[in-house]
Write a structure and sequence with these properties.
single chain; about 280 residues; alpha/beta; seven-stranded mixed β-sheet; about 35% helix
């Protein structure tokens, strides 16, 4: 493997319980994300869609939507715990999970129409990953990299949207900022500094529809974030719980309520950003 500043895939999300929480609380990708990627691929690729490789697949949340478009979806992740959880869930029969790094894709040269990485590419050794993606892609095949940022969710509230957002930013950016990994910086910058090494590339973004949730579910989502896990490893689980409780209290204060987090209903939406590049 090429020696570079990104020595290897940065590894979080590896404990079995964390992988289960990830499967439960991380959002499923919106349908329009999958449909847009496939539509872009078909703009110039006219053959059969034999193989999609979903790299950094986690529990398969972003792998399954491609199953009805492709003959086979090969979903890979560096975390054996994530693959264990993925195999315990129900997925279409044409989705296969493999435990391997993003920089070593178990596919033959030129066999793949799409290499996808959703909420994952920011943890890769990018030069090595791009080299490997280029190897497995066929002519006019596509790399698609997408993610969303926890800090750029937007609350939907008649009068308190901005204050709720500030509570989120305070938790994730200010309280956890010193515990971010390199990947978190890429997400915060919306992949602005990630350059797909193909001449033809496109960058797009779109918002999801409003999603109904509870304050407890939002806290559980934040608990799966890498910076929060880093904080707990450094300070201890009790300190992490105190930090989450602080976020919950701040939201309750904004809303002028003592309603329990499990019963406190909220609405928000999230922005996805997407980079696609086409191999000549």
């Amino acid at each position: 493997m090429k020696n570079c500043s990104w020595m290897a895939t940065e590894r979080f999300f590896e404990g079995v319980q964390h992988a289960k929480n990830y499967a439960t609380f991380r959002p499923r990708p919106p349908e329009q994300l999958t449909e847009r990627i496939v539509a872009y691929l078909k703009e110039k690729y006219e053959g059969q869609l034999d193989l999609c490789v979903d790299v950094g697949c986690g529990n398969g949340q972003c792998s399954t939507p491609f199953a009805h478009h492709f003959h086979q979806v090969l979903a890979t992740d560096v975390s054996s715990a994530q693959i264990q959880v993925a195999n315990a869930l129900v997925h279409p029969v044409n989705v296969e999970f493999r435990n391997c790094t993003a920089e070593s894709i178990p596919a033959t040269a030129g066999s793949t129409q799409l290499v996808n990485a959703s909420t994952a590419a920011h943890w890769f050794d990018l030069p090595a990953f791009f080299q490997e993606a280029n190897r497995v892609l066929c002519s006019n095949g596509v790399i698609a990299l997408s993610s969303y940022g926890l800090a750029n969710h937007v609350f939907i509230h008649p009068t308190k949207s901005a204050e709720l957002h500030q509570a989120l930013v305070h938790f994730y950016c200010e309280r956890l900022g010193s515990f971010w990994g390199t990947g978190n910086r890429h997400v915060y910058d919306e992949y602005a500094n990630i350059v797909v090494p193909f001449a033809e590339i496109t960058r797009e973004e779109f918002w999801t529809e409003e999603v109904s949730t509870t304050l407890a579910e939002i806290a559980a989502l934040l608990e799966t974030a890498g910076p929060y896990q880093n904080y707990c490893r450094s300070k201890g689980d009790a300190a992490g719980r105190e930090l989450l409780d602080e976020f919950i209290t701040n939201c309750q204060r904004v809303l002028e309520t003592q309603e329990q987090p499990e019963r406190l209903k909220l609405k928000w939406k999230r922005k996805y950003f997407l980079i696609m590049g086409r191999k000549p």
